[in-house]
Amino acid sequence: MDHKEKIRSIEVELDSVEEFLDYLNPYKSHWGERKLGRYPKNFGWIFRGQGDSDWALTPPSQRLPEEGLNKSFHPSIYRRKFDKSALGEDNRAKHVTTEITTIETILVNDFIDISDSIGINVSYLKSSHIIKYFDSIYRKLGRLGKNFGPEYHALYKTPDTNIKSPLIDIYNDFPPPELYDLFSLAQHYSIPTRFLDWTFSPFVAAFFAAHDVAEGNIKSEKISVWSVKYLEAHPVRANRNINLIFANNSVNPFLRSQRGAFTLVPASNSRFYDLGRWIPHDEVMLNGLPKEWQDYSSIIKKIILPSELAEELLISLSRLGVNYITIYPSLKNISEHMKIERRLRSSENDNWINRYFNPPYS
Questions:
Q1: What is the dihedral of CA 216, 59, 336, 71, to 10 degrees?
Q2: Which of 77, 90, 236, 336 is most buried (most C-beta within 10 Å)?
Q3: 166, 176 contact by CB (below 8 A)
Q4: 194, 96 Cβ separation under 8 angstroms
Q5: Where are the domains of the chain?
């Protein structure tokens, strides 16, 4: 069974918001037995909403420029990274893996430096120990230049004796676990990294699937919510090709309110060098299962709804207490929340909210 056939086998297409929300209900039998285990905040699944059901599970830093915000940060890199005629196929893989890793490192480091410069407390992320990790990454990438490949694997694992840097395997384990909190914080504030956002709440995932479509920022025929069973004993969780990351919620109110988590393919640089492309997380998950595995939908699901129902879905989610202000709780977001709610209520002909925002004057 090829990857497209596996994807088709895990799809659940629904035609109404009522059916969609009913399917996402965590008490339904198709989610299996509820087990608390080590993570009592969830019933064993993580979820991700996407505004286009055709999208693969690709992290921000590995998307094409027109699909994400990467072009805004380093347009010169993205203009030449797919230029096979200029680089040649072999050199292209070396260029892309080295340059994208460099871009990510610089952006995350700059994000923390700027946060610190404007008085936001990130001291726990800017210790001398963490700075050494960045120094080590910069030096290794600088020495590697265009020669990124398995033949240089030993160099990655060799510490720089001048700065007594930690051992870092950029080829098979990037970013190192010591930088997970830093990368996850930057990722959650729109810095493109190789982390992929998930949530423990199916309804929060549904909000993210519908929001940009309802606002007109995404044009698509269908939206989707991906779900993955993550319990440690399960084949997906046991697949060491992909990591599930529980970030520090105490310093990130948005991550806390969204009940967020991340997935990471640590060896994505190695995979790009070998295959000439970034491997989406859904492909890593499905291909990492045992060959004899047949029931893919018991551990990975893709629940689909027509995009024309996105506004109706947001209205229903708001009634369940999932809306813009519960997702992004801050004073500056209250007005945006009020505008969205007004627009949604207007679309369902709610005269009361129109009177509230537009009282009659004599």
A1: -70
A2: 236
A3: yes
A4: no
A5: 3-318, 325-357
